[in-house]
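[Automated response] Your request has been received and processed.

Submitted sequence:
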Amino acid sequence: MIRVVHDDAPSGAPVFTTVIPVRWGDMDAEGHVNNTGCFRFMEETRMRWISGMGIPTVPPHPVIVLLDAACHYVRSIDYPATVSVALSAGRVGRTSLQTHYKLTHVESGAVCAHGYATLVWYDMVQQKAVPLPDLIRKACAAV
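Generated structure:
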């Protein structure tokens, strides 16, 4: 059984930051990035971080599943724009990691959103959570 632990504060400095251009298709009918766009920016950031360490992210290797996720919207993001996303580590468990995100509008420097996601490493064959990769633990301990 997986226990949900809410952790409202990252442990320290970002472990990874990336820059993502806003695409025209990220906008909604109101002319700003749709709320799901912020979740996609967070997803893209964590996958760049994990893949950049050489950790496989598709079966037959364990995959990342989300236990929970949330986003607090501070300011709208309009096209054209670039978003910087800083990923910080929160609670590190045996099979899970809470990640925190700060989305910043590069051109203005304004913070647009804060979010988090609890990641679980999951073995699709065994249908159970498995221990976090050592590279993730080391990256989180280094900050």
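Summary generated for your ticket: The first strand starts at residue 16 and ends at 21. Residues 1-5 have pLDDT under 50 and may be disordered.
If you did not submit this request, please reply to this message.
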